[in-house]
Sequence to fold (180 residues):
Amino acid sequence: MRKWNAILTLLILVLFLIHAIAGGFQLFGLSQTALKAVGRACMILILVHAGIGVKLTADSLVVWKKTGVGYFRENKLFWLRRISGFAILVFLALHLLAFHGTGTGSGYRLPWFTAGKLVSQILLILSIAVHGISNMRPSMLSLGAAGWRRWAVDILLVLAVLLFFLGAAFVIYYLRWNVW
Fold:
């Protein structure tokens, strides 16, 4: 199941990159391509990934209950991964609620885009960063990537640039919507 989850994670990452880059350009006002189908497919895969995560977490909790020891302090990274994944689900729901507007001939315009929506989108980006960084090692190992450590800084750099791009896109869109 873990191997399938790793493959699923890779598919989610590819769809997320496509959706995020296209959406970022759209928020900057440089493109009118929404790629909603890619976003929907990504969402379905995320829900399957979350379901697998819930199953694996439940299995771990059953073992912890049987043994009588949870080793919470020793398993902080385990809980960081679960909590950040849950945060992504919460902020993803807010993302879906925030971007329910329709595209127009001149670009994408929401009925309203408040500071609260901006904050929820920035928190989505941060939760994706935490979840991605904390899960990079087990994902790479599950996919059989030997010598993944030499790529770690490159992967983190690409992730940082992408997440900065997305954060800037949300802020620029907010400013365009509310100020300009």
Notes: The CA atoms of residues 129 and 160 lie 8 Å apart. The helical segments are 2-28, 36-67, 76-98, 115-142, 149-178. The mean pLDDT is 87. The beta strands are 102-104, 107-109.
